């Protein structure tokens, strides 16, 4: 392993020989010696020693302090002063050059060895830190998001190239400026957000993820939609010396999302047209079934809203409800309109409508599980329903809602084979079997609609 190489800058040959002997005895190598500041700078550039032992008073027009300052600026080589002069004025000048050590002559070998070892160790540590900082800076500059770091006084300490591009500010121009000069973020109502956000992050140590209705106003006035987050920079003892803000341009994503919304709206429009065709087909064969579907759909939608389901799921329930008996198109019309009690065979044919409806709808493109809702609307919590005997959570919530609406409407309304049983009997049925056949929450919502909120089924 190569020993560390040291350059001695001293204008007295006897002292040079003495220092050389001491340093070599410690196991270090001497790569060069110099007698003047100018010579020291030149030889430091060509020899690149690991450390310079520098006298302050030298031959020529440049003293050791000036030479040490220049060597550190040019090559980053640490310097330890080895001098007989120690007055206050000299010490103050020496401190400005940031030496790695200051030893007064005459010195002890142990004192010199400690100073050399500390200086070399400190240099290695600084190089490791610098390497990590370069790596971190490279990472931050390479990522696709914009990154801006600020100190506790909200002054910019770092920004990567993406941040430069989005804000319109160059890194060197932004450094040291208040972040409010560089970063102008507003919400869609043009309220300034930065000062409030920075205050909460600095004072409370919060990590804040901002909603995606933010606009970055660039240096040239251009407004760019962004999503962003702000996090405190954690220092020693949980101190908070600043914060870092990461943001990205979401213009293209918003365009894509808008195209998706348009496509979805088009799909829903086409689906609505298809549904209306199917409803008309059912109505032409059996007006009783068509009216039942419309009333069941309206009640199911009201129950879903009462339960607080998202609007998108409510729309799906209404859509499924309006065609949940579509499978009855496969049942002979004379059975559907038969005014007397159905035979076992006739009833088994009608029970097939859930399967038939599923097969008709399973390949229809839809944002909702229409086919599965239709398939399951006659299932019951205890497994006594049909066609698959599903139980409990195996039945999707949309089907559990439609099942209650279907039973209430069916019992409350007139049918060719029986008179209407009435709403009171229908509500008593679902309340009697609440939690056994029918979902308890769905039943509770349905009962509340009728008894507390005065809901009335259309055309009922």
Walk me through the structure.
- The N and C termini lie far apart (97 Å).
- The chain is built from 19 helices and twelve strands.
- The chain is 52% helix and 14% strand.
- It has three domains: 5-139, 3-Layer(aba) Sandwich (Rossmann fold), CATH 3.40.50.2300; 144-249, Beta-Lactamase, CATH 3.30.450.20; 255-451, Hypothetical protein af1432.
Distance between the termini: 97 Å
Strand content: 5-15%
How is the biggest beta sheet arranged? Answer: 7 strands, antiparallel
Task: Calculate the mean pLDDT score and round it.
Answer: 83
Name the overall outline: rod-shaped
Q: How many alpha or pi helices?
A: 19
What is the radius of gyration computed over CA atoms, rounded to a whole number of angstroms? 42 Å
Number of strands: 12
Low-confidence stretches: none
Class of the largest domain, according to the CATH hierarchy? Answer: Mainly Alpha
Entry keywords:
460 residues; alpha/beta; Rossmann fold; Beta-Lactamase; Hypothetical protein af1432; 3 domains; seven-stranded antiparallel beta sheet; five-stranded parallel beta sheet; rod-shaped
In short:
The chain folds into three domains: 5-139, Rossmann fold (3-Layer(aba) Sandwich), CATH 3.40.50; 144-249, Beta-Lactamase (2-Layer Sandwich); 255-451, Orthogonal Bundle (Hypothetical protein af1432), CATH 1.10.3210. 52% of the residues lie in helices and 14% in strands. It contains 19 helices and twelve strands.
Write the layout of secondary structure elements.
Elements: E1 5-9, H1 13-25, E2 29-34, H2 37-47, E3 51-54, H3 64-75, E4 79-83, H4 88-96, E5 101-104, H5 109-142, E6 146-151, E7 156-159, H6 161-167, H7 171-174, H8 179-182, E8 184-187, H9 194-204, E9 208-209, E10 214-217, E11 223-233, E12 242-249, H10 251-285, H11 287-306, H12 311-321, H13 333-336, H14 344-351, H15 353-361, H16 370-376, H17 397-412, H18 423-432, H19 440-451
Parallel strand pairs: 1-2, 1-3, 3-4, 4-5
Antiparallel strand pairs: 6-7, 6-12, 8-10, 9-11, 10-11, 11-12
């Amino acid at each position: 392993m190569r020993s560390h190489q040291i350059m001695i800058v001293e204008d007295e040959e006897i002292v040079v020989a003495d220092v050389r002997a001491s340093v070599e005895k410690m196991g270090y190598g001497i790569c060069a010696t110099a007698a003047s500041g100018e010579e020291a700078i030149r030889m430091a550039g060509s020899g690149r020693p690991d450390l310079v032992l520098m006298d302050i008073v030298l031959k020529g027009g440049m003293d050791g302090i000036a030479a040490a300052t220049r060597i550190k600026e040019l090559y980053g080589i640490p310097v330890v002063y080895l001098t007989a002069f120690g007055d206050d004025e000299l010490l103050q000048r020496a401190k400005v050059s940031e030496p790695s050590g200051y030893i007064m002559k005459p010195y002890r070998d142990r004192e010199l060895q400690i100073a050399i070892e500390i200086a070399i160790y400190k240099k290695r540590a600084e190089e490791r830190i610098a390497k990590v900082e370069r790596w971190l800076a490279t990472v931050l500059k390479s990522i696709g998001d914009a990154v801006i770091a600020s100190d506790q006084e909200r002054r910019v300490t770092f920004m990567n190239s993406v941040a430069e591009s989005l804000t319109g500010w160059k890194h060197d121009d932004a450094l040291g400026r208040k972040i409010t000069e560089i970063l102008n973020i507003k919400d869609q109502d043009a309220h300034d957000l930065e000062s409030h956000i920075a205050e909460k992050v600095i004072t409370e140590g919060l990590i804040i993820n901002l909603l995606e209705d933010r606009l970055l106003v660039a240096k040239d006035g251009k407004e760019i939609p962004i999503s962003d987050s702000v996090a405190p920079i954690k220092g020693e003892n949980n101190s908070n010396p600043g914060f870092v803000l990461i943001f990205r341009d979401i213009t293209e994503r918003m365009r894509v999302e808008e195209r998706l919304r348009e496509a979805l709206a088009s799909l829903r429009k086409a689906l609505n047209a298809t549904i209306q065709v199917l409803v008309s087909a059912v109505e032409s064969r059996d007006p009783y079934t068509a009216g039942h579907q419309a009333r069941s759909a309206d009640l199911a939608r009201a129950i879903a809203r009462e339960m607080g389901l998202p609007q998108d799921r409510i729309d799906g329930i209404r859509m499924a409800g309006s065609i949940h008996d579509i499978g009855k198109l496969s049942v002979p019309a004379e059975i559907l309109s038969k005014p007397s009690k159905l035979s076992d065979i006739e009833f088994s044919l009608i029970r097939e409508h859930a399967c038939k409806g599923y097969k008709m709808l399973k390949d229809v493109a839809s944002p909702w599980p229409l086919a599965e809702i239709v398939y399951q609307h006659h299932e019951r919590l205890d497994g006594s329903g049909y066609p698959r005997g599903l139980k409990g959570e195996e039945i999707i919530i949309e089907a559990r809602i439609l099942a209650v609406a279907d039973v209430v409407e069916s019992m409350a309304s007139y049918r060719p084979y029986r008179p209407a049983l009435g709403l009171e009997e229908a509500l008593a049925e679902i309340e009697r079997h609440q939690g056994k056949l029918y979902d308890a929450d769905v039943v509770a919502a349905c009962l509340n609609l009728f008894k507390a909120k005065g809901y009335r089924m259309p055309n009922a």
